[in-house]
Amino acid sequence: MIDDEKRIIEVEVIEGGLKDLGFDYLLIRAEIIEKDPQTTIVRSTVDYEIDDKLAHKVSLVKMEYFQTAIEAIAQYLNTERRANA
């Protein structure tokens, strides 16, 4: 889900990768916050459900995996905003 107006990106992992490690539910959310014309803050969260026996695998979820995509989207949204200003 991408909400251009609120500048929120949500991605639910539905198969493969981390789901194969035992996560029942995994949602990555990024909120793009424009501080000023040259500064953008990205607030990222991960929501998940996993069996208690597999809780040690939670440390495998790292935002760095998603950082490049989130930064590219933030840059695109800022470029678009400046073009429409």
Structure described in brief:
The protein has one helix at 64-84, and strands at residues 2-3, 8-12, 23-36, 39-50.
Characterise this structure.
The structure is a single chain. By secondary structure, the chain is α+β, with helices and mostly antiparallel strands. It has a single domain (2-83), classed as Alpha-D-Glucose-1,6-Bisphosphate, Chain A, domain 4 (2-Layer Sandwich), CATH 3.30.530.20. It contains 1 helix and 4 strands; from the N terminus they run E-E-E-E-H. The protein has a 4-stranded antiparallel beta sheet, covered by helices on one side. Strand 1 and strand 2 form a beta hairpin. The longest helix is centred in the last third of the chain and has 21 residues, at 64-84. 7% of the residues are buried. The model has no long low-confidence stretch (mean pLDDT 82). InterPro entries: Bet_v_I/MLP, START-like_dom_sf. It holds the Pfam family Bet_v_1. Residues 2-79 form the Bet v I/Major latex protein domain.
Main structural class: alpha+beta
Query: Could you say which overall geometry the principal axes of the C-alpha atoms support?
Result: elongated
Q: Which percent bin holds the helix content?
A: 10-25%
**What is the overall pLDDT average?**
82
CATH architecture: 2-Layer Sandwich
Number of strands: 4
What is the helix/strand order? Answer: EEEEH
Unreliably modeled segments: none
Strand order of the main beta sheet, please? 1-2-3-4
Biggest pleated-sheet summary:
4 strands, antiparallel
Predict the CATH topology: Alpha-D-Glucose-1,6-Bisphosphate, Chain A, domain 4
Q: What is the CATH homology-level superfamily? A: START domain
